[in-house]
Design a protein that fits this description.
- The protein is α/β, with parallel strands linked by helices and about 475 residues long.
- The protein folds into three domains: about 10-120, no CATH class; about 135-190 and about 445-465, no CATH class; about 205-250 and about 260-425, Ribonuclease H-like superfamily/Ribonuclease H (Nucleotidyltransferase, domain 5, 2-Layer Sandwich).
- The protein has helices at about 25-30, 35-45, 55-65, 70-80, 80-105, 110-120, 135-145, 160-170, 175-185, 205-220, 220-230, 295-310, 330-340, 360-365, 385-400, 405-425, 450-465; strands at about 10-15, 30-35, 230-245, 265-280, 285-290, 315-320, 370-375.
- Helix 5 (about 80-105) packs antiparallel against helix 6 (about 110-120).
- The chain starts with 11 loop residues before the first strand and ends with a helix.
Length: about 475
């Protein structure tokens, strides 16, 4: 019997099992849960001629169990043992929550594969194990070491090198590279896969933490600051050494079954630098400067032109610690915009006044009482600067694989793309980081019965490695 239930738009279908005369175990008295999609997939598996006979039989067991038939009746119809019917009904019941989570969060093909996996045989013991759990753990432990610790002039392990190393250490008598790779796949360990990360050079951990929290607070409060106080929050930085390289042959676009081709030889026409101002609230690049240089005067001119887009607003400018971002030109520009006389700035050469040293210049630029103020990211932490995300988009969509006949051509294409980006898919970044570690526990979806068995085996190996 089908009934409509408002649960994430799914049509949930329940078949309640009746208690068999011979007595069902508690698991078998539980209701079988089928959604509309799982019901259709099981029907397809039970009727498709190319489906394995065992998968087809088990799909029919679940469908007949959904029709409230008892184990003995299903066994008689399918000519199977009653205990076999009960086993597969229990396995489906153990997997129901996991399958429902997969259906709600993944695509249809993944959901179908998960159902087929639930209906497959349990892993068989096979021949006596050639390698003990301790040996498997030792192989995994070796893969977690640096190859250079074993006097090998490489940075990452291969299966062949690991096999050679564990034999050399007398951990196993013999082992093939493919078997080593099987062990690594078991614990989801990929020695050759690495992800870049950035480690700050700031020695004062408390100072670093306070600076990170300050930048994150600025981002998270930018919307309220704009609505309540007309304060524009922008992220500023430069893309340097953008090469205007012209490919010596035209780029060949991909065809069905083929890859596109890019000529590796090119002619150099020079380099340019792009300076951008990203509005954190609007999610737009509000001003872009493309020039051959990027010195202190260039940066000061860029900030002046950015503020000219809304001269009556308050401004918070997030920037990194490049020396041009707190040099004399930007100090004089900000002072002029704030109506502070140049005579009040002091003298850099004589080291007095605001211009006297780095600390005094930074203190002036970050003064919270000013209408225009800067906020600097911690040293070596440009990942906190939102505009770096936009620069990544520009690099992927324009620079990488591009061909430019001149510096003017590169400049035109950069400015055209920024305008196109603003008009099409630019939007505010969903910044959620607060500067503190996220302590919210990650929720893991329920496992199917086969995944539970695999997780148990993995945990056994990981316990030995630890």
């Amino acid at each position: 019997m089908m009934q409509e239930m408002p649960f994430l738009g799914l049509m949930l279908v329940f078949g309640r099992l009746t208690q068999a005369k011979e007595g069902l175990c508690p698991d078998e008295r539980r209701k079988l849960l089928l959604t509309e999609r799982s019901y259709q997939i099981l029907r397809t598996l039970s009727e498709k001629t190319t489906t394995e006979v065992r998968i087809k039989e088990r799909a029919r067991i679940i469908l007949l169990g959904f029709e409230k038939l008892e184990n003995s009746e299903i066994a008689r119809i399918l000519r199977l043992e009653r205990h076999s019917v009960g086993r597969w009904r229990r396995r489906w019941q153990q997997s129901q929550d996991g399958l429902l989570a997969i259906e709600m969060n993944e695509h249809h093909a993944a959901f179908q594969r998960a159902i087929e996996d639930v209906l497959r045989d349990a892993p068989r013991s096979g021949a006596p194990a050639k390698f003990s759990a301790q040996q498997v753990a030792q192989v995994v432990s070796t893969a977690c070491e640096s190859p250079r610790d074993s006097q090998r002039p490489v940075e990452t392990w291969t299966g062949r090198e690991l096999a050679d190393e564990v034999i050399k250490r007398d951990l196993v008598a013999s082992i093939s590279p493919s078997r080593v790779n099987d062990f690594l796949r078991l614990v989801d360990l990929r020695p050759s896969h690495r992800k870049g990360w950035c480690f700050t050079t700031e020695k004062d951990r408390e100072l670093f933490q306070s600076q990170v929290e300050q930048i994150c607070s600025i981002y998270l409060s930018a919307g309220d600051a704009f609505r309540l106080h007309n304060t524009r929050t922008i992220s500023v930085d430069e893309m340097t050494s953008l090469a205007a390289n012209e490919r010596r042959a035209s780029i060949r676009l991909p065809l069905p079954g083929q890859q596109g081709k890019i000529e590796c030889q090119y002619t150099r026409h020079g380099t340019l630098s792009l300076t951008g101002s990203w509005d954190v609230v609007a999610g737009q690049m509000i001003h872009t400067t493309v020039d051959e240089t990027r010195n202190g005067d260039d940066f000061a001119l860029h900030i002046r032109q950015t503020i000219a887009t809304d001269p009556l607003a308050n401004w918070i400018i997030v920037a990194d610690n490049l020396n041009t971002h707190y040099g004399e030109p930007i100090v004089r520009t900000v002072a002029e915009l704030l109506g502070i006389g140049q005579s009040e700035l002091g003298d850099k050469k004589r080291r007095r006044g605001i211009l006297g040293c780095i600390q005094s210049r930074r203190q002036f630029l970050t003064d919270p009482s000013h209408r225009i103020r800067f906020a600097y990211t911690p040293r070596h932490s440009s990942w906190l600067n939102q505009i770096e995300v936009v620069f990544g988009v520009i690099n992927r969509r324009v620079i990488r694989g591009g061909s430019f006949t001149s510096k003017k051509d590169l400049r035109d294409k950069l400015l055209t793309f920024v305008d196109y980006y603003n008009r099409t898919y630019a939007k505010p970044l969903n910044w959620t980081y607060t500067g503190r570690p996220i302590n919210t526990p990650t929720t893991q979806r329920p496992r199917t019965w086969r995944e539970t068995g695999k997780a148990t085996r993995i945990q056994q190996v990981m316990d030995l490695v630890a």
